Amino acid sequence: MAPFLIAFGVALVTAFSYLELVTKYPQTAGAALYVHKAFGVHFVTFLVTFIVMCSGITSASTAARAFAANLAAGIEVELGNGTIMLVAMGFMLLVMAVNFRGVSESVKANVVLTLVELSGLVLVILIGFWAIAGGNADLSRVVLFETPGDKALLLSISAATSLAFFAMVGFEDSVNMAEETKDPSRIFPRVMLTGLGITAVIYVLVSLCAVAVVPIGQLADNETPLVTVVETAAPGFPIGALLPFISMFAVANSALINMMMASRLLYGMSKQGVLPGFLSKVHSRNRTPWTAILFTTGLSLLLIGYVSLSPESPIVAVLGGTTSLLLLAVFAVVNLVVLVLRRDRVPHGHFRAGRILPIVGILACLWLVLPWSSGRGAEQYGIAGALLAIGVVLWGVTFAVRRLGKRAAPDEVPADLS
């Protein structure tokens, strides 16, 4: 439970900063807008925007691996790592096809899909408590701290927190809906904090039940841990067989939303002259940014292939950890931006995060980013660095072309970048 509670605390502090910014500047573009208002540096704004885009790609790649693993568990077929990799890649191609046709995700559809995912987690909690009440679980494991021999307690918790943070992200995307919200100064604080609170309660209860029912050694390096928990707590329970398919449905939605966000963000940066123009091409019939979709899908396939063929670390941990790494870096900047923009006054009332919480957020996010305090593997930094290098090269090519005289480089990034 400890890593989820700490991750919730870090997310909550950062949410306060986002709430001050979104109620102060109720416009789209999120972190890119706030960073540009604070620093006005074209390259810094680009980096933050590109990092957010990359986090969508790594998150979708994580979902693709989870989809393939749950499919194997659902049909009760033993699939090797290579086969799961191919299934995950095929799933990403399917997501690309849906993305290419032009999907309009409505709020009602997202609510339905979220409830499907939530039903799976509630199922785990109910079955877990049933096993605990029947004496088929060991509650002593819930408060037992067992650490690897090569890691101290603090480093072990930090490493687990840096991965558990993956479960708390998503609230930062909601600020892009600011212009679609009536009275954001009143609505956003109530809804965002309630959503984070529900998320924390659900995941803490899931972690409690999981560890009580299944020894931690069996959960480690397991790509379908919740299926294992249900099968252990209630062998032969018919609804438990549905859990892999519920998980597949949930991660499919996650992958589609993230890939849509990533491709549209890449398209927006290209359209505004920040990245090469070929990434802003739109299909004549579907009106979808097909080159951006191909580019982001290609990056996702490379990630799935590279991580699947690398025997160094658990695959989901590497991709999920990279997503957390990228977003934690953005969150550290957002917490700093709140302090920088304090001198900027607006004519309407807005949420205030105070002076201490943003500083706590900066320190906490940096603690979970740095290698010696977070316990992250080198693979996560390597993947994040490689993605950023691709972005910097694309930006450099675009900037060089403009400097050669085709047209002047833009002085600022428009607010509607995302």
Topology:
Blueprint (H helix, E strand, L loop, with lengths): L1 H23 L6 H9 L2 H33 L6 H21 L5 H27 L19 H12 L19 H30 L2 H4 L5 H9 L9 H29 L18 H20 L5 H26 L15 H14 L1 H4 L3 H26 L15
Helix pairs in contact: 1-6, 1-7, 1-12, 1-13, 2-3, 2-12, 3-4, 3-10, 3-11, 3-12, 3-15, 4-10, 4-11, 5-7, 5-9, 5-10, 10-11, 12-13, 12-15
Comma- or semicolon-separated keywords:
0% strand; AA/rel_permease1; Amino acid permease; 15 helices; globular; mainly alpha; 418 residues; membrane; Amino acid/polyamine transporter I; single chain
How would you describe this protein?
With 418 residues, this protein is an all-alpha fold. It has one domain (2-403): Amino acid/polyamine transporter I (Up-down Bundle). The chain is 69% helix and 0% strand. α12 (315-340) runs antiparallel to α13 (356-369) and α12 (315-340) packs across α15 (378-403). The model has no long low-confidence stretch (mean pLDDT 82).
